[in-house]
Sequence to fold (251 residues):
Amino acid sequence: MLAKRIIPCLDVKNGMTVKGVNFVNIREVGDAVELGAEYARQGADELVFLDITASHEGRKTFVDLVKRIALNLNIPFTVGGGISDISDIEALLSAGADKVSINSAAIRNPNLIDQMAKNFGSQFVVVAIDAREENNTWTAYVNGGRIPTEKELFTWAKEAEARGAGEILFTSMNHDGTKNGFACNALAKLSESLSIPVIASGGAGNMEHFEEVFTKGKADAGLAASIFHYKEITVPQLKNYLNEKGINVRF
Fold:
C-alpha cells in the first residue's frame, strides 16, 4: 500500500501566509519562505502554495515568491492561484514548482486540463475543487470560494480525471478552518469513484482527524494549514501517531 502523505499548505495573500475560517476572516500567520523551509525540515511529504486572491484580483501568482520558497525545499512543491494559460504554468515550473494546481481556470476552461496533461504529463496536473454542501449537493466554487458554479463535485472530479488530471485536491468549504474534522463521507465517495489520488483539505484540528481521513475518508493525502502554522501539532508528531495506528507513512 502506498504511504499516506502529509501536506502543509501555504495560503498566501499579498506575499504573506494567511489563514481563515470557511474562506473568510483571513489573518496573517507568517513568512511563506520560512514556513516552507521549516516544513521541509520537519519531514513533510509535500508542500502546497496557493495564492488565494490571485484569481479574484485578476492577476498572476507571485512567481518571485515561488522561486524563493522552492530554493529552500527538497520535497515536491505544488503551486496554484491566478493561472489562466500554458505560459503561466511554464513560468511556475521554471520557478521551481513540481506540480501546478488549477481551480477556477479549469472550471472556466476545462480544455486547459487536457493541454496541461498533453504538454507536461498528468503527474504535473492537480485539479483543486473548492466545494460547499447545501441541501445534500456539493457545488464547486471559483475565485477563492466566492462564486458558485453549475459544477457538481463528483461529476466535475470525474471529468477532470478523464481530461488528464493526476490528482484531485478537494477542499470542503463547510469544514475549512473549523478544526472539526474533514468531510470524510464526501472524500470516501470521491476516492471510490476515481482512480487518481485524492488530497483531503478543510477541517483538520487534531491527529485523530488525520487517522479518520485516511481510514473512513479513504484519502491518499491529508492537507492542513493552521494546525501546523500555529504549532498545535508538528509533522513528526503526526507521523509517529499515524504509524502507531497502523497507517503507512514515510519517515
User: Anything to note?
Assistant: The longest strand covers residues 125-134. The longest helix spans residues 32-42.
